[in-house]
Design brief:
Layout: E1 6-9, E2 19-20, H1 24-36, H2 45-51, H3 53-60, H4 67-88, H5 100-107, H6 116-130, H7 134-153, H8 166-175, H9 177-189, H10 198-219, H11 221-226, H12 234-242, H13 246-274, H14 279-298, E3 315-319, E4 324-329, E5 340-341
Helix pairs in contact: 1-3, 3-4, 3-14, 4-6, 4-9, 5-6, 7-9, 9-10, 10-13, 10-14, 12-13, 13-14
């Protein structure tokens, strides 16, 4: 497909509210100040600003009452985005390929950081992972190490992905670092420890992460295609396996997102009827995937630095190499799906441990 193709993004018409933390602007300002004063990160300030890490956390965890936790999670998202992009670009800029083993050992706390890059990584990732507890930290350490390996050697995408069924493909994607990392961000930001309920909550968590992954694949397609990294997405699976167009794949993704939301709501009702104490956590997962929809449909990481549109509304867009250009919105879609502020709960009142 040539970039600059015009594609229709239909309004997903979600029934679920999208909330944003009322302190989002403050979080973005504080993160920008941290980057501006950091010798390793400062050269990447424009890219970090485009990635909107603080806004992502404020949409994923709008009920958090702790700005320090929001900022710690935002720094974690920021550094993983930065490393991910450097992996895609062959480790130019932030470090050489031979630094991969050292970064893994720093993350696992098996090595004291020695370089500026390693010290930066440790200073950001350790407070975040320490706040998750030992069990979660062990799991996410392994997942992050696998993610760095897969990016560094280009071995993270199985061969013949286009022969997978949809279920096989989603199971593979969920088993990747996305499951641990996405869930961890929300749990940390709201100070939530439900590690004793992993078996009970896993089906709900998996469904939430499936929603996140499909939304990411849809809105990141322009950027991933421009970088030559679109093969691992579900749109490419359908185009190669089923012989459908990009437009057909976008429509199919939107239909699947609606189906996943309906499944999630049914699973949530059943879970809460059995275990009312988990209702707040189930709500937090809903806020996570709805916030993810908002930050990628309205944000600039995947849509380009000059993006000024809102793809929560149905719209015709042109996939330029550097930006998603909105050509026209669907009639009657204006104002639908805008994130609204949510008053944070009192500190300590959300998701008690155990």
């Amino acid at each position: 497909m040539e970039l600059r193709e015009i594609i229709h993004f239909p309004q997903i018409r979600t029934r679920l509210p999208i909330h944003v933390h009322p302190g989002a602007a403050e979080a973005e300002t504080q993160l920008a100040g941290y980057v501006a004063g950091h010798p390793v990160l400062k050269p990447y300030a424009a890219k970090i600003r485009q990635d909107q890490s603080a806004r992502l956390v404020c949409l994923w965890a709008p009920q958090s009452a702790d700005m320090e936790r929001i900022l710690a999670a935002a720094k974690y998202v920021m550094i993983t985005y930065l490393i991910d992009d450097m992996l895609d670009e062959g480790w130019t800029g932030i470090g050489a390929r031979e630094m991969v083993a050292g970064l893994k050992r720093v993350i696992a706390q098996q090595k004291k950081p020695q370089t500026d890059v390693e010290r930066t990584l440790a200073a950001i990732i350790n407070p975040f992972l320490d706040g998750l507890g030992r069990t979660f930290r062990s799991r996410i350490n392994a997942a992050l190490a696998d993610w760095i390996d897969s990016g560094a050697v280009r071995g993270g995408t199985p061969h013949q992905t286009h022969r997978m069924t949809d279920r096989e493909f989603l199971d593979w994607r969920v088993s990747d670092v996305g499951y641990e990392a996405n869930i961890a961000i929300a749990e940390y930001a709201v100070g939530c420890d439900v590690s004793g309920h992993e078996e009970t909550l896993r089906p709900l968590k998996v469904k939430a992460v499936e929603h996140v992954l499909i939304i990411n694949d849809v809105y990141s397609y322009r950027r991933e295609l421009a970088k030559g990294c679109a093969d691992a997405g579900i749109l490419n699976l359908w185009m190669r396996r089923d012989g459908i167009s990009l437009q057909g794949a976008v429509y199919k993704a939107c239909a699947l997102v609606r189906a996943i939301e309906a499944e999630y709501l049914a699973m949530e009702r059943e879970l809460v009827s059995r275990e009312p104490g988990l209702a707040a956590y189930a709500e937090a997962l809903r806020m996570l995937f709805q916030g993810n929809l908002a930050v990628h449909a309205c944000g600039t990481r995947y849509n380009g630095a000059g993006f000024r549109g809102n793809l929560l509304r149905g719209a015709w867009v042109r996939l330029d190499p550097d930006i998603t250009s909105v050509i026209a919105y669907d009639p009657g879609s204006e104002g639908v799906g805008e994130p609204v502020p949510l008053r944070p709960l009192r500190a300590g009142s959300f998701c008690p441990a155990g």
